[in-house]
């Protein structure tokens, strides 16, 4: 999809032009993984015209393979994003109805061919929220992934401007039986799955203890191999605390905490976390602590990068995760 944004911190109503910024949940994850050296393929449907080609070219530019992108439909999904500052929050307006992927049919994709030989399939809760057709495609993709022994991860990503909690729960809960790695925050777990952790995020009370019980319940009910939560402490639009928690059924691990100030662009922060986590789990199998620290450092760095994509290298992430956070010029 494409993001249309005013320059800098301008408001929508004062803008006479918008920047075109390619992005979108799963696309952002794919770019991160390509940056870390993985063969990342993106599966979607985009119009066969120049506006659709903008999105295809953006993926190719950063090394994402586009072999499984179906071309057709009349329009690409759009969203407008106004970047906040200090006590003024950022604002998003969606324009996704009738997009190519929202109206795509199962005949547009051969999911068995796509999943054959793959090691990991990632999707987000935004996709089934787009339309009933997109929700059905998500189910078919997950079924094919399971048939081919592919690890499946989900970023719950509840978006109240796309659907209600009741609709989300009715669609998302049945899809969880296909998921190995569940990623979300406290709001996602409650509004998508009906689980509420005992943690006061707004008040900064985000200790692991508030999440232990709910993680165990989620794992028992859905059979997840890992449950992961990002923990954002939002002091202002440009100052956040950032850490995460992971549970593998035996041990909880809480990452180090980062203070991100100032935030340059927080859009895609969660996606950069998912991309970092997938890389960490593939790079450090069986070491959930190492995987989580890589993911948190990667997403902290994303907050310093304009645009949806996390354009940082594996070496930069490892440097930050290793404690090098002074920001000194590298010569």
Helix content: 25-40%
Rg, nearest Å = 19 Å
Low-pLDDT runs of 5+ residues are: none
- Average pLDDT, to the nearest integer? 94
- Report the β-strand fraction as a percent range: 15-25%
The helix/strand order is EEHEHEEEHEHHEHEHHEEEEHHH
Structural class: alpha/beta
Counting DSSP H or I runs of 4 or more residues, the number of helices is 11
The total beta strand count reads: 13
Q: In whole angstroms, how far apart are the ends?
A: 37 Å
Shape: globular
- How would you sum up the major sheet? 7 strands, mixed
Please provide a brief summary of the model.
This protein has 331 residues and is of the alpha/beta class. The chain is built from eleven helices and 13 strands.
Secondary structure layout:
Layout: E1 2-5, E2 19-22, H1 25-35, E3 44-46, H2 50-61, E4 69-71, E5 78-82, E6 91-95, H3 111-115, E7 120-124, H4 126-130, H5 132-147, E8 151-155, H6 165-175, E9 181-184, H7 186-193, H8 209-222, E10 226-236, E11 239-247, E12 252-254, E13 258-260, H9 269-283, H10 288-302, H11 314-321
Parallel strand pairs: 1-5, 3-4, 7-8, 8-9, 9-10
Antiparallel strand pairs: 1-2, 5-6, 10-11, 11-12, 11-13
Characterization of the model:
The protein has 331 residues and is an alpha/beta fold. Helices cover 36% and strands 19% of the residues. It is built from eleven helices and 13 strands. The strands form three sheets. Strands 7, 8, 9, 10, 11, 12 and 13 form a seven-stranded mixed sheet that branches. A four-stranded mixed sheet has the order 2-1-5-6. Strand 3, helix 2 and strand 4 form a beta-alpha-beta unit. Helix 6 packs across helix 7 and helix 9 packs antiparallel against helix 10. The two termini are 37 Å apart. The mean pLDDT is 94.
């Amino acid at each position: 999809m494409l993001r249309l944004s005013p320059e800098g911190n301008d408001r929508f109503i004062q803008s006479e032009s918008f920047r075109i910024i390619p992005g979108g949940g799963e696309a952002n994850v794919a770019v991160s993984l390509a940056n870390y050296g993985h063969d990342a393929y993106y599966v979607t449907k985009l119009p066969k015209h120049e506006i659709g080609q903008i999105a295809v070219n953006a993926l190719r530019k950063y090394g994402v393979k586009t072999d499984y992108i179906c071309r057709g439909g009349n329009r690409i999904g759009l969203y407008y994003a106004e970047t906040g500052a200090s006590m003024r929050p950022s604002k998003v307006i969606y324009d996704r109805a009738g997009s190519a992927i929202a109206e795509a049919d199962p005949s547009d994709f051969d999911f068995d061919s796509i999943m054959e030989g793959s090691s990991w399939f990632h999707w987000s809760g935004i996709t089934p929220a787009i339309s009933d057709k997109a929700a059905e495609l998500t189910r078919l993709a997950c079924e094919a992934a399971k048939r081919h022994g592919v690890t499946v991860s989900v970023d719950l990503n509840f978006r109240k401007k796309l659907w209600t909690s009741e609709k989300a729960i009715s669609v998302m809960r049945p899809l969880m039986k296909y998921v190995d790695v569940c990623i979300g925050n406290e709001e996602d777990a409650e509004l998508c799955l009906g689980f509420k952790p005992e943690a006061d995020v707004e008040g900064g009370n985000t200790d692991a203890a508030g999440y232990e019980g709910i993680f165990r319940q989620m794992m028992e009910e859905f059979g997840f191999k890992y449950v992961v939560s990002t923990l954002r402490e939002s002091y202002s639009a440009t100052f956040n605390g950032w850490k995460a928690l992971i549970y593998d059924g035996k041990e909880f691990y809480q990452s180090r905490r980062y203070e991100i100030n100032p935030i340059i662009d927080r859009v895609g922060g969660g996606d950069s976390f998912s991309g970092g986590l997938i890389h960490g789990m593939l790079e450090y199998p069986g070491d959930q602590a190492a995987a989580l620290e890589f993911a948190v450092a990667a997403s902290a760095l994303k907050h310093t990068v304009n645009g949806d994509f996390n354009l940082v290298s594996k070496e930069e992430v490892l440097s930050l995760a290793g404690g090098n956070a002074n920001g000194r010029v590298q010569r």
